[in-house]
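We were asked to recover a plausible sequence for a given structure. The inputs and outputs are reproduced exactly as logged, with field labels preserved.

PROBLEM: sequence recovery
POSITIONS: 186
GIVEN STRUCTURE:
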């Protein structure tokens, strides 16, 4: 049994002065989480390919070619206009936020690799087995889409569990550290 004891509220989080909220927002980087939704394209693309597999079995080859790619490497290899800023902001993201985000991404990577293993025996030149197609679609609906949504929620700071790094008004008391810890285990 894991027991987390937090005795005081986190100190007010401030964005490093060179990462001001307006600059982050202008670059499509959330000024609270310091993360950019562009990273989720890496997952949305493979899910879109998976959704095509039941009707187009030859798409299996592209699904199997997908590889996990961490946040920094994704932006380093991307054409995202502010890719250096995205990488720097990720490294400056609030620790709780980045920890929760990285955990969701690790789980998402594992789920996709598990699906790749499931699809590895598919003959791309033959119709896909209907039972396998059903399992694939259920995995997309019940596992992948919710995980992508959870990652998106962290990026967009929608759940309020993590203090905003750009918060200038001292609202950190609204988000208790224990709430963030509890959220990680939900």
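RECOVERED SEQUENCE:
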């Amino acid at each position: 049994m894991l027991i987390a004891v937090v005795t005081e509220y986190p100190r007010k989080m401030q964005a490093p002065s060179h990462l001001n909220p307006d600059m982050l927002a202008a670059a499509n980087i959330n000024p609270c989480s310091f993360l950019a939704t562009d990273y989720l394209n890496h997952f949305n693309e493979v899910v879109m390919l998976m959704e095509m597999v039941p009707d187009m079995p030859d798409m299996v080859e592209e699904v199997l070619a997908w590889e996990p790619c961490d946040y920094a490497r994704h932006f380093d290899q991307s054409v995202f206009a502010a890719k250096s800023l995205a990488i720097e902001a990720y490294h400056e993201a609030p620790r709780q936020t980045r920890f929760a985000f990285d955990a969701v991404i690790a789980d998402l990577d594992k789920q996709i690799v598990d699906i790749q293993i499931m699809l590895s025996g598919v003959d791309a030149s033959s119709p896909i087995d209907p039972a396998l197609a059903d399992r694939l679609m259920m995995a997309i609906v019940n596992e992948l889409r919710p995980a992508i949504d959870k990652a998106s929620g962290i990026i967009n700071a929608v759940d309020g569990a993590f203090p905003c790094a750009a918060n200038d008004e001292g609202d950190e008391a609204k988000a208790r550290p224990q709430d963030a810890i509890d959220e990680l285990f939900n």
